Amino acid sequence: MRWHDYELDSEIFKSNEDLTLCRSEKVLVETNKGALVVAIKNKERKAGYVFVGHGRLLVDAIVETERGAFGKTIDRELNEPFLMLGNKEEIGQSLSPAGSDDLARIGLKHEEFLEKGQNLLDSLSKKRTDCALDCSSEFKGSVFAFPANEGGLDSLIVKDSKLVYAAKDMVFLSNRDKSILTNSGQVVFSSDGRSICVGKPHMSHTCC
């Protein structure tokens, strides 16, 4: 699947209920009833959505080791547009066309929302740092992109028990009992109760 095959739809919808976009032991992504939504298409087929409303991102990016816990919990409000690829059929059943009142409530004009959505899609296509972002239609997980506070994008990839969270200051990978955390010149590995820390020492329960 090539990135130039992705395109933003022109019709804007709203969510008819609170939406849980991703939930697992370590991840939660949700947005509120009334959030504005526009579809992302790939060769006329829905591939995902851009959302804007009041949502939440929660990632348990903590690695337990014999020396203590390293990492941090990512807990942030999602008030800016963010992008999701995947989980398209289930979400589509919870949407209805948005009206001018819905756009006014969010504080965006039709063209402004579409422009922000297109900017997200363009930024993600330029990033392309994770192989899963160029996956084929057989990929059954979810890919998220969130605007970072310092510019650029934070990304989250979830498929079954596997997750990858990548931000400017950290990368966290997890699969069942195996975790890898990189941050500030340090790498922490944890697998089946055993762990290795390489790099600068840091205090427990801080970003390592």
How are the elements arranged and paired?
Blueprint lengths: L5 E10 L3 E5 L3 E5 L4 E7 L2 E8 L2 E11 L2 E11 L3 E4 L2 H5 L2 E3 L2 H7 L3 H18 L14 E6 L5 E7 L2 E6 L2 E6 L2 E6 L2 E6 L2 E5 L10
Antiparallel strand pairs: 1-4, 1-9, 2-3, 3-6, 4-5, 5-8, 6-7, 8-10, 10-11, 11-12, 12-13, 13-14, 14-15, 15-16
At a glance:
This protein is mainly β and 208 residues long. Helix content is 14%, strand content 51%. The protein has helices spanning 88-92, 100-106, 110-127, and strands spanning 6-15, 19-23, 27-31, 36-42, 45-52, 55-65, 68-78, 82-85, 95-97, 142-147, 153-159, 162-167, 170-175, 178-183, 186-191, 194-198.
Report the principal-axis shape: elongated
Q: How many discrete structural domains? A: 1
The radius of gyration computed from the alpha-carbon positions, rounded to a whole number of angstroms, is 18 Å
Oligomer description: single chain
How are the strands of the largest sheet arranged? 9-1-4-5-8-10-11-12-13-14-15-16
Give the uncertain stretches in residue-range form: 129-136, 202-208
Number of helices: 3
Can you write the helix and strand succession as a string?
Answer: EEEEEEEEHEHHEEEEEEE
Largest sheet: 12 strands, antiparallel
Helix share bin: 10-25%
Tell me, rounded to a whole number, the average pLDDT.
Answer: 85
For the secondary structure, the number of strands is 16
Q: End-to-end span in angstroms?
A: 35 Å
What structural category arises from helix and sheet content?
Answer: mainly beta
